[in-house]
Write a structure and sequence with these properties.
- The complex is a heterodimer of chains A (117) and B (107).
- Chain A is mainly β and 117 residues long.
- Helix content of chain A is 0%, strand content 48%.
- Chain A has no helices and ten strands.
- In chain A, the strands form two sheets. Chain A has a six-stranded mixed beta sheet with strand order 2-10-9-4-5-6, with no helix packed on it.
- In chain A, strand 4 and strand 5 form a beta hairpin.
- The model of chain A has no long low-confidence stretch (mean pLDDT 97).
- Chain B has no helices and eleven strands.
- Chain B has strands at residues 4-7, 10-13, 19-25, 33-38, 45-49, 53-54, 62-67, 70-75, 85-90, 97-98, 102-106.
- In chain B, the strands form two sheets. In chain B, strands 2, 4, 5, 6, 9, 10 and 11 form a seven-stranded mixed beta sheet that branches. A four-stranded antiparallel beta sheet of chain B has the order 1-3-8-7, with no helix packed on it.
- Classes of the chains: A mainly beta (117), B mainly beta (107).
- The A-B interface holds A 35, 37, 44-47, 50, 58, 60-61, 94, 99-110 and B 34, 36, 42-46, 49-50, 55, 87, 89, 91, 93-101.
Chain lengths: 117, 107
């Protein structure tokens, strides 16, 4: 069974940084692209970033230059380094298996990031 | 950026009724269109991928159709557990985008 477990969320001040992690199991991690998708409170789904199985990356314009996606295939872990955080980055961040090449599925349970002073 | 517009925003129906949800793309996405269901406090769950293929474990009452710019998710006979928010999603072009969602509520 595929399992994705996010961690690292929390409360951070505007301009601060946070690193999210996603521990993956139940599939061959290094053969799969992975994505981060976020959901603001009461809002819809917004794609954030994707990394292919070989490490090529894509970012939404809203986070480009501030967020960095990476992966550690030896530890089956996906990361999202978030710098220069803004109020509008407040959201639940979901880790998910999949990229533009395949349906995004499944999703982790999400980790909440709150940017507030 | 491909914009996905879902309609209606809210759909009020009773158990046993048929639900028809629409998703329109601002340009063709071929059949690279998926549907997700999300319940409060839960992650989205994949229902339909590539426009018309049911994901593993999804009941046969869920079906998807369409290609190009117009897509439909149909729930043939609503069960109590089907009342949730539904999102469409395209993976035809970067950036990946989602519709704004349709809330299916009990009438």
């Amino acid at each position: 069974e595929v399992q994705l477990l996010e961690s690292g969320g929390g409360l951070v001040q505007p301009g601060g940084s946070l690193r999210l992690s996603c521990a993956a199991s139940g599939f061959t991690f290094n053969n799969n692209g992975m994505s981060w998708v976020r959901q603001a409170p009461g809002g819809g789904l917004e794609w954030v970033s994707t990394i292919s199985h070989i490490g090529s990356t894509k970012y939404a314009d809203s986070v480009k230059g501030r967020f960095t996606i990476s992966r550690d295939n030896s530890n089956n872990t996906l990361y999202l380094q978030m710098n220069s955080l803004r109020l509008e980055d407040t959201a639940v961040y979901y880790c998910a298996k999949g990229t533009i090449a395949s349906a995004i599925d499944p999703w982790g349970q999400g980790t909440l990031v709150i940017v507030s002073s | 950026e491909i914009v996905l517009t879902q309609s209606p925003a809210t759909l009020s129906l009773s158990p046993g009724e048929r639900a028809t949800l629409s998703c329109r793309a601002s340009q063709s996405v071929g059949t690279y269109l998926a549907w997700y269901q999300q319940k409060p406090g839960q992650a989205p769950r994949l229902l339909i991928y590539d426009a018309s293929n049911r994901a593993t474990g999804i009941p046969a009452r869920f079906s998807g159709s369409g290609s190009g710019t117009d897509f439909t998710l149909t729930i043939s006979s609503l069960e109590p557990e089907d009342f949730a928010v539904y999102y469409c999603h395209q993976r035809s072009n970067w950036p990946i985008t989602f519709g704004q969602g349709t809330r299916l509520e009990i009438k």
